[in-house]
Amino acid sequence: MSKTAKLPESKLTKKQTKTFRKELPDGSVLIATVRHDDECNNRHNSFAVTGELYDRPRNPGGEPFQTNSKGQKRYLGSCGCLHDDIAKHFPELKPLIAWHLFGTDGPMHYLANARYWAGHSGWCDGKPNSPPNLEHLKSTINYGAVPDMDHGLEAIWRNDANLREWLEVRLESLMENFKAAVESVGLVY
Question: Which domain-ending residue is among 58, 80, 97?
């Protein structure tokens, strides 16, 4: 998306993860994985925070399992973007969730998602959670991650040209903050 922003340099990494494990009071096991690598083979590192919740006491047939501290097997019940569970049980990872699906080439679909939620993509059915939707727009661009640059959105978001310019101006600072977040968990940017 960026024509003028200078993005931080990154070292391409094939596999780089940090895993966090917690046993919950009911004997379930939650595993959170933070990843920043080129697992997708698209020639840039991407960032993700995902989870696996092992909460079923019985094997439904061939499911992976974890053993809790009482020696009980707990089978995989859900996995993927378990961000609410991860934020609740791993508060130290909560700030990283906002960077989910960022890449070293920029936030995934930064301009397209912003324009969609601002109502500039041509689709709008007037329903409450449909575009234009300022709160959804803010969530797709990691609003608040660049506090000194995030003022003024409310005044310009309905004008496509102004929104595009505003997004471009904040991108360099946004990516510097993303780099700092990746490195804060001990991963190579």
Answer: 97
Q: Which domain holds residue 85?
A: 17-97
Q: Give the residue from 97, 119, 136 where a domain finishes.
A: 97
**pTM of the predicted model as reported, rounded to 2 decimal places:** 0.89
Question: What mean pLDDT value characterizes the chain?
Answer: 95
Q: What are phi and psi of 40, to 5 degrees?
A: -85, -5
Q: What is the pLDDT of residue 175?
A: 97
Looking at the chain, list the stretches that DSSP marks H as alpha helix, in order from N- to C-terminal side. 83-89, 94-97, 110-118, 134-140, 153-156, 160-184
Q: Are residues 87 and 125 in the same domain?
A: no
Q: Say how far apart CA 11 and CA 183 lie, in whole Å.
A: 12
C-beta of residue 90 within 8 angstroms of C-beta of residue 44: no
Burial 132-143 (b: 16+ CB within 10 A, else e): bbbebbbebbbb
Contact 45, 103 (CB under 8 A): yes
CA distance 88 to 100: 16
Q: So what's the pLDDT on residue 88?
A: 98
